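new request in #modeling-help
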Amino acid sequence: MSWRKFFHRSQWDAERVQEIQSHMEQEIDDNVARGMSPQEARRQAYLKFGNPQHVREEIWRMNSIAPLENILRDVRYAWRTLIRNPGYAILAVLTLGLGIGANTAIFTVINGVLLRPLPYADENKIVHVDQTVPRLGSDPIGLSIQEYYDYRNQSHSFSDFAEYHSMLFTLLGTKNPERVVTGVVSANFFNVLGVKPVLGRLFVPADDKIDAPPVLVLSYAYWMKEFGGDRSVLGLAFEMNDRVHTVVGVLPPLPEYPDANDVYMPISACPYRMDPMMIRDRDMRMITAYARLKPGVTLRQAQTDLATINGRMVAAYPKSYSGWTGFSAVAIPVKQELTHAARPTFLALLGASGLVLLLACANLANLALSRQLRRSREVAIRMATGASIWHVVRQMLTESLSVALAGAAVGIAIAAIGSRLLVAYAGRLTPLAGEIHLDSAVLLFGVGSAIFSGLLFAALPAYVATRTRLTALNEAGERSVGSDHGTRMRTALVTAQVTLSFILLVCAGLMMRTLYNLLSVDPGFRPAQVLSMQLNLNWTKYKKDSDKTNFFHEVLVRTEATTGVQSASISWMAPLNPNQAVFNGQVKIDGQTLPDGTPAPIVDFETASPDYFRVLDIPILSGRAFTDGDKADAQKVLIVNARMARHFWPNQNPIGHRVKPGNSKDWWTVVGVVGDVHQYGLNKPPDDTVYAPLDQNPIGNAHLLVRTRGNPLLLANQLTAIVHQIDPQQPVTQIRTLDQMRNEQLGTPRVTAMLLTMFAAVALFITIVGVSGTLALSVSRRSKEIAIRIALGATKQNILRDVLSHGMAPVVIGVCAGALASYFATRAMTNMIFGLKPDDPTTFLGIAALFFIVALISCTIPARRATSIDPMKGLRME
Amino acid sequence: MSNSKQTNNDMLKGTLDMMILRTLITGHAHGHTIAKVIERTSDDVLQVEQGSLYPALHRLEDRGWVSSYWGLSEANRKARFYRLTAAGKKQLRSEVGRWRQMAKAIALVIGDVLHDGGAE
């Protein structure tokens, strides 16, 4: 068999016809010459030759590739059937396309984030080592350098144990002075990750020596952004922290993990890290650790190893760890840390889109089923004339797979667009979002899900077809075959659809309410029309406290003199800035002694200039705000939030009480109480907070907050210019409005809620089409029966009630089953929702009510048709 | 289709192929001529439907043992002529060789049977 012949079969056949023709004429001539009559001559020639048709067929078969031939024939037949019924074809392709598109788009993200290996060698061996204290929440607290040494020197589970922290430094030597995010790492950090430089070298142990000449390794992204990938960057010198740093290497493209570092420097070059005070103090936790498991060592063994050291530490240094119940060391696989936020969300979304696809399949199965029932005569004829069951089933599979593959084409196109929109969304949840793009795995998934759906929705009608009996051929057959059977099957399908889409609707409902809850959280301040700019001072330039406060005062004075500015303040943080870590510490309350062994209470700290509360519109509940009189040498004063006031001084006026925060030697007097503010997230309740005046607690890293009259962003350039007038080398970063920050907080739940709601809406639509379609079919099937009942005196109400109860039965059963299933399914969403429980009864009841109403409305159309049946017409049809 | 019938058919096919090749060794011929020659030379022992000749020719051409072209017959009629290719000649030789060997072997076996039968 050959392809060339395969495609030239018709031409070849035409030649054979000619050849056989010529043969016959020759034979007939011979016979006539032998004296036969022309008729006899022709008859004898044919007798001798055999059946020419048969000969042609045999040659045709020799030129064919049998399985291909069959498939082609089936495809052609499927094509003809679908063309004859374009409505069905378009509906089916679009439904499937949407379902497959949604699935493939979500899968693209999952593929990029969860499935693709990390660009690190042997990624499963890399762990992040840190410590947690339950009292301070589930976030790790970091390591002090002494603790790091203990873990590094005493553990024996790791082949490499590296330290890491990230800071902002000013880099001089490029076009503008720049604040660069700098990863400060021990020399073996990149051994732990297992990455190789694309240019130059990474750090070597000699770089860790105290007197080593400072060197820099650039991240790939920074190299591209600042130097356009110029290879001559090696050996360039930049000034950082008053020292000259030489570029020695460039990293390959890596995820922005642990942080979005622009450059890396060895620990020996970081002035903070090398401060002898910092190295000595066991309680100053500024670093964290990354380690690579030795071959053959399991995560559990490593954790036990670390726990032993941790226990030894607690025993050896009671002063540092007294009362730290639950203090423990943790080793978290890096892969898990990179994906833990994205995993549940995207798996939930894949589940949702998978349900939508299943629902679509159910609807198509339903449609195909009724088509099949209408075609039972055709199938019966084909089987009567010799087609096997396999022939019939294969034909139907071809038809559904053709539809499914067309759906896949539509779906993959949708996924290509959809996944691009999802990248930004995924970026909020994982640093791996850059890895998201269409690849062969995605295409395979798209086509695979199409084939799966095709098989799924062909299965039911194929099953019905195999049960087709020749009785379908007699007159009554049309009605009797599969009618009862088909209806029951269709009702079961619809019930399943209702169940599935109910689950989906409940999930979407929970997410919508979460979003609503978050939106209606009062942040405790008014974010509208406030601009935030980050001003991180270069510590080598602003060494003295007075230098810092003078600079900030100058900024405030000039900012407030700008037209369009209502008020301005300097504070450590901007509330709801998603990029900030919680800053808190212990406090002592004057006159309140703690029982022995009880740890001191922890409160959040914030530093603020006098106008801070005015800028943010935080209400002063009693006492006063800070004033310009709260100078460095004046009496130390504090403002506490309402929660803290209630907590420590219930039923008392906290004004005048004294507090000793953190390591301070002084007692600070409370002068005011302000409203609670959601500092770290709308979904995190405000904690006890103390505010210290800027002059009494000078800071180097600050946010300039400016309340403006008009659009705050219009003032951004002007305000940046003011800062540069005071210090041309001072970088101004993260220029955003507080509204933008608030919206960023809402971004993830908003998109999740939107996507789930979209899926749920599609699911509801598909299901309702199924419910009313099935009912309409059953009404038309029963029209004669209904006509008889009307003729016998049934009222419209009787008929209406009968038809509606018929249509609503699967809805009621499905909703009950769905509620039961949702009760378990929604538990997976516990971490995604806010302000309500996963089995929230209001949501469940609301969704059930919605379902009933929509279903009831959709059922009235076929029900009305049933009541308007004319009994005379109905009976005459017989 | 039963197995024995299949074997029978295969044997017939092989024989027909050989006979066609054998016919063509004397020169080009079209289908009708080949049919006549086979009919005559086999003393009408092999009653073959003339139609089955054409699939066989097609098969031989497919294997490259014969080639074909359109031409005019003795009766001035357009006809498809077949001729033996070099590969076809080689095939015929080996086919004939094989046939002779087999005939010899059969003759030996049959001879023994006859001989044994005679001795009894």
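bot summary: Chain A touches chain B through 22 residues (CB under 8 Å).
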